[in-house]
Amino acid sequence: MADEMVLRAQRFINTTYGNGATLGMSKLDENGRTSWTVMYALTRALQYEMGIGSLSNNFGDGTLAAIASKYGKLDASTVPSANFCRILQSALYCKGYDGGDIDGTYNSRVQAAVAKLHQNMGVDVTYPGGALWPKTVKGLFNMDAYVTVNSGSDTIRSIQQWLNGRYVLRKDFYIIPCDGHHSRDVAKSMLYAIQYELGMADGTANGVFGPGTQTGLKSHTLSTGSSGVWVQLFTAGMVLNKRPVAFSSSFTSSLASAVSTFQSFMHLADNGTADFRTWSSLLVSYGDQTRQGEACDGVTKITPARAQALKSAGYKYIGRYLYNPSTTDLPEKEIQPGELATIKEYGLRCYPIYQTWARSVDYYSPQQGVTDCANAAYKAEEHGFKPGSRIYFAVDYDAVDDEVTSHILPYFKSVADQMSRMGNPYKIGVYGPRNACSRISDAGYAGTSFVSNMSSGFSGNLGYAMPENWAFDQIVTKSIGSGDGHIEIDNNIASGRDTGQGDFDAPPAQKLDIGFDLSYWEALADEATEYMKSIGRGEQSNNIYTRRQCLETIMSLDDVITSTARRYRMRKALIQTTAFWEFCHYGQEDLIKDGGVGFYYTGTVPDWAQNLPGVSKVQDSSTGVGQIQGRIGILAWNNSINAGLADGTILDPADVRPSPDSDRYKMWIKLLEDNAYNVRTVAHIHIWGADGKQGDAEEIPQRRPALDYTQTEIYEVLRRYQGPVEPAFSDATLRMPLYAIFEKYNSAVRGA
User: Fold this and answer.
1) Is the residue at 501 inside a domain?
2) Could you list the residue range(s) of the whole structural domain that residue 358 is in?
3) Once rounded to an integer, what is the mean pLDDT over residues 672-692?
4) Do the domain assignments include residue 509?
5) Is the backbone of residue 164 left (phi > 0), alpha (psi -120 to 50) or beta?
6) Average pLDDT taken over every residue of the chain
7) Which of the pair, 194 or 588, is modelled with greater confidence?
8) Which helix (H) or strand (E) holds 116?
9) CA-based angle 709:715:720, to the nearest 5?
10) End position of a domain, from candidates 261, 284, 307
């Protein structure tokens, strides 16, 4: 909603400073809405009026020092010019305070607004009256709120005000928001407060949980009966971590009970006191990094020697990666052959992690979620994880809250939806910072969280409480063992919510195909289209789609093709080659034929016309991406249903009644309209072809499509798809190099 006074502030900036040119920025939108852009403009204007040569969006130490040295404080007697005052008035309006009409006068309304601002900040005792001081000017020129907003907590706001009021005169402590929400700034201010109370001097205190801070905290254990500022700091930490306690200076029995609950939740020693480990868990995401975990994760193969070293060190649960698309980087990142058997032999358990890249927001999309879910499930099956195992999908970067909303949540929704479509063979977990884990879990897309607390500087960890459903708490990287047993791991605390798997199915003799890696798309597209051009099957005037469009259509069905190929233990390339080849030949005449078939079954065909010579030409046509006739589709599906390979209803290929209820039309229209069904049918036609094509031009049966199909078998099943006469034989010869192209990229993705 537009604010008239903010609009006036925007106009003042544009009019006074050459539509932003004087300030080195673009003209402000005059929309009456406060934004960072407006605050940056006001900051630059303030710097300009003070004679600072290099203007910046940042209200940094130089700007702060200039105010202090030039004016000390800003009031009616020290404000240097009318425009300087108008800048302050504009900033007040942008913060929601009465700026006194932006008239260039530091009047009583401005003074009252400043007094109210200081009260809201919690610094009114330190800075009484209506004058602005350097640090409160800095706090004025940003988007921080000093009143409770967006359902914030009044208790948290009181903590924020207390911190401001108590420590604002310390050199490196700046005004923090008082909006009722925990945040990165609030978390850092707590560390400064601890350091100040430990007696650290300005310049020594740095807001970092370092050795000096840790040593000092070890001598400040609190228990029932304790009181004073240390209890205030401790209860503040409890409140900021969403524990149901009062912000207080007294350590009561009820506080001790809440501390015990928190300690149990975090898997700390349950003693009800504010000991070092409890302080640590309240102040930094990784807590006390000397804690010994029962879980770990790593990118190194678990050999017998390493398994023994891990077991001797007290580890029970080993996190290992399901997939590594690189053949050179971290060569042992993916679970290695025989590794799970070793884990089982030594009485350890394994929880699987799926991550290929996942290190920037650009990675995350709904389509990527579909691909990752399918591939994770496929690789879990390949490695031998039993149904019901939980797979942790990664958010391995500092995802800010807006990115969680815009990209991460849609990605995980897609993961959850795809897992459901696959029949929920595996459960879903999330690996990532606290905020991402909590929001994904709260949305119902993950059951447990593997929290990357080791990354304490992540904005997604700073200012966020531990997810309620945490299973693993990653706190530090360490090395254990020696000699052959030496291994570097991430040390993780285990909550017991997930204990991984201790027994595994035998892996298949050969790797099955998995979802396509889009990083190969351009190379595949170039190679496939160039090949089609080289054999004289490039773009044709009567074709409806370009070769690249045809390939895009086929590859958009990758999840269907992959799941079908895996189900029937055939290579994806067998389906891809056939569907791509056929779709490339879909032309204008095919549209006409399809139109005739549609009219025959859904139009009005008189009885006397149903048996006219040539009417069979409009009873069926090769349709859809795989150019499949309804009759052929029926024969292929009937063959698979009778063989127990598929579920469904047996249809009559001879039922060509001119009615939408006829069996031939039911199959034909589905092949036309449902691309996913069409490419699944391609696989069943290959099976039917290998079985001898019963009901058509029958052939000698051969082995059904298999992962180890020979070149002769591949050629023969491709040829049978097209028929028993030319050009089926010559076209099958031309399709073989196309098969090799698809298989080249499929094998690269699956890792052999």
Assistant:
1) no
2) 295-494
3) 97
4) no
5) alpha
6) 95
7) 194
8) helix 108-121
9) 110
10) 284
CA distance 121 to 142: 13
Q: Write the pLDDT tens digit of every residue in 375-413.
A: 999 999 999 999 999 999 999 999 999 999 999 999 999
- Nearest to 455, CA basis, from 430, 428, 431, 480: 431
How confident is residue 608, by pLDDT bands cut at 50, 70 and 90? very low
Q: Are residues 148 and 138 in the same domain?
A: no
What percentage of the chain exceeds 90 in pLDDT?
A: 92
Residue 727, preceding bond cis, omega within 30 degrees? yes
- Is 391:322 a contact under the CB 8 Å cutoff? yes
- 333 and 268 within one domain: no
Closest to 351 (Cα-Cα) out of 271, 289, 294: 294
Residue 329 in this model has a pLDDT that exceeds 50: yes
Q: Confirm if 602 and 594 have CB atoms less than 8 A apart.
A: no
pLDDT band at residue 607 under the 50/70/90 scheme: low
**304 and 210 share one domain:** no
Q: Which of 202, 238, 257, 194 is nearest to 220 (CA)?
A: 194
The count of other CB atoms within 10 Å of the CB of residue 188 is 19
Q: How many CB atoms lie within 10 A of CB 650?
A: 10
Report the distance separating Cα 27 and Cα 738, nearest Å: 56
Residue that is written with structure tokens 């927001």 in the block: 361
Which tokens sit at 307?
């398994």
Residue where the block lists tokens 């999840």: 559
Number of domains in the chain: 4
Distances (CA, A) of 689 to 571, 675, 717: 16, 21, 6
CB atoms within 10 A of CB 92: 24
In a domain, 624, yes or no: yes
Please state the φ and ψ torsions of residue 427, each to the nearest 5 degrees.
-85, 165
Look at residues 615, 587, 613, 614 and name the one whose alpha carbon lies nearest to residue 603.
615
Helix (H) or strand (E) holding 391: strand 390-394
In CATH, what number is assigned to the domain containing residue 411? 3.20.20.80
Residue 258 and residue 242 in contact, taking contact as beta carbons nearer than 8 Å: no
Residues 81, 165: Cα–Cα separation, whole Å:
30
Per-residue pLDDT of 636-680, as tens digits, reads 999 999 999 999 999 999 999 999 999 999 999 999 999 999 999
* Sequence letter at residue 159: I
Flag whether pLDDT at 358 surpasses 80. Answer: no
Rounded alpha-carbon distances, angstroms, from residue 536 to 529, 533, 540, 673: 11, 5, 9, 29
Query: What pLDDT was estimated at residue 616?
Result: 66
> CA–CA distance from 718 to each of 485, 502, 683, 694 (Å)?
51, 43, 11, 17
| Angle at 588 (CA atoms; ends 655, 719), nearest 5 degrees | 65
Examine the domain organization and report whether 473 and 372 are in the same domain: yes
Tokens of 729: 């034989």
Count other Cβ atoms within 10 Å, centred on residue 168: 21
d(CA 502, CA 386): 10
In this structure, are residues 574 and 705 in contact, taking their beta carbons and an 8 Å threshold?
Answer: yes
480 secondary structure, DSSP code? E
Contact 426, 387 (CB under 8 A): yes
- Verify that 330 and 469 share a domain, yes or no: yes
